[in-house]
Amino acid sequence: MTSAPLFLAVRYLRPTRSFISVITVISMLGVMLGVGVLVFVMSVFSGWQREFRQLLIGFEPHAMVQPMSMQEGGPDGPKPVDWRELRKTLAQRPEVISAVPVATGTVVVENNGNLQGVDVIGLTDEKDNALVQKLSKHIREGRFDLTDDTIILSDKFAKELGAKVGDTLVVHAAESVNQFIQKYREIPEDGDEKKRAEALDNVTVLSKDLKLVATLRADTTGLRGSTRGYVPLHVAQEFFNLESNVNGIELELKEPDDVERVMGRIYRSGAVPETWGYRTWIQEHEMMLESVKNQRTMMWFILLFIMLVASICVMNTTITVTVKKRREIGILTALGTRAWQIITIFVSQAGIVALFGVVAGLAGGFFVLGIRNWLRDQIASFTGRDIFPQDIYFLSSIPAHTDFSDLLAICATAVVLCLMAALIPSWFAARVDPAVALRDGG
After folding, report:
1. How many C-beta atoms lie closer than 10 Å to residue 201's C-beta?
2. What is the pLDDT of residues 272-330, one digit of tens each?
């Protein structure tokens, strides 16, 4: 009697020219749709999350060790820190690939009367500079050369500026431009023109001619890379009035995904002075990374309702089958079949529908994943709208990455919901009085 419920469940699922067969197929299609959509959407979100993190790691400094606002060198303050010695200490750490000095700030780039502000990082062009090495992989045109008065921009920013590789751009220090604007506003409009001219002559705007030697791909330099430039360290030091000092020391780590734990260990070891702190690439983009994670979680719950609809279809199928098989249920009960065995028959039927739907859904989901970028192009050509715009998602193609844990969760959720949906009408069917069932089914 152990295999009897399963035998009857399979028997009830055999194709017949009846209404039951139609609703059984509809239930199976509902499960297939729910699983397929979940597989596709969760794979795309996982791929986007994974690619976005790799994108940040591929162009952002892994960690930046910087002096805090506390003044050094005062009579009662801490002793000044020699950044060269600190760099040497950090470079000797086993977790660190390279430690290089950087100078960061904002400049104003001018080309043919077009002025645009851009954040720049001043770097040394050293062979062991891991940041320069990974940024060089994103070169679209030119060569990553920081040995002379040069500048490197993203191709998107260069296009907005109307500049191309080989052009000489006029770069102004943002601080001196702000001082010029402030002095200009302080001059009375009704004042003597000669005095106005003398006042403006006393304001100097620090400017340099820098040659655009390379452009970086904006679609691979992520959230901030498309509005960031790179200049030689000595140029940045001049623009930001640092003399021979730096804003910080950039670290490239062997384990960038575990940057918070690694930097915490380095800081606790005393390798970083108390007057210096650090920021990581995760901290710089914490809100965006958290937003991606929250969107993925919310999408999971939204798509879960599709699975609930599919399970309701299975419940309707079970209700229909139990009503149609009411007389047979009465006979089985009269012959001594126990209630749990009756329940097992219809729950097994729902389980078989769920399994076939899950397998079909997995196949359909992976098929659509395989043609996702082709589908995107077709939808864009038909509707005139890009469903995966690069300006929002920072990627030129739709990524996809399927985790085994996600697949397991999707399949298990589909099967469990279908079994639970079938359990309720099966339980009521098993409680029927045999005499009533035989009389009503007669």
Report:
1. 8
2. 888 888 898 888 888 878 887 888 888 888 888 888 888 888 888 778 777 776 677 66
Contact 172, 110 (CB under 8 A): yes
Mean pLDDT across 354-371: 90
The encoded tokens of residue 394 equal: 């920072």
Of 284, 307, 341, the residue at which a domain comes to its end is 284
Number of domains in the chain: 2
**43 and 122 share a domain?**
no
- DSSP secondary structure of 387-401: SS-HHHH--SS----
Tell me whether strands 139-142 and 96-111 are parallel, antiparallel or unpaired: unpaired
Count Cβ atoms below 10 Å from residue 382 Cβ, excluding itself. Answer: 8
Q: Judge if 18 and 32 occupy the same domain.
A: yes
Q: Which of 25-29, 77-81, 123-127, 265-269 is the most confident on average? A: 265-269
Q: Are 397 and 411 in the same domain?
A: yes
pLDDT over threshold 90, residue 162? no
Return the amino acid letter for 303: L
Q: 267 and 308: one domain?
A: no
Q: Which helix (H) or strand (E) holds 12?
A: helix 4-12
Query: Cβ contacts of residue 8 below 8 Å, gap of 6+?
Result: 345
Residue 242 lies in domain: 61-284
**313 plus 276 within the same structural domain:** no
Give the pLDDT band of residue 405 (cuts 50, 70, 90): confident
**Inter-residue contact 277 to 68 (CB < 8 Å):** yes
Q: Are 414 and 351 in contact (CB under 8 A)?
A: no
Pairing relationship of beta strands 276-280 and 207-216 according to DSSP bridges: unpaired
How far apart CA 378 and CA 142 sit, in angstroms, is 34
Domain-ending residue, one of 251, 284, 317: 284
Looking at the fold, whether 320 and 186 belong to one and the same domain comes out as: no
pLDDT attached to residue 133: 85
Residues 86 and 198 both lie in one domain: yes
**Same structural domain, 146 and 220:** yes
**0.90 surpassed by pTM:** no
Residue 299 in contact with residue 41, Cβ under 8 Å? yes
Interatomic CA distance for residues 119 and 403, integer angstroms: 37
Nearest to 27 by CA among 304, 303, 312: 312
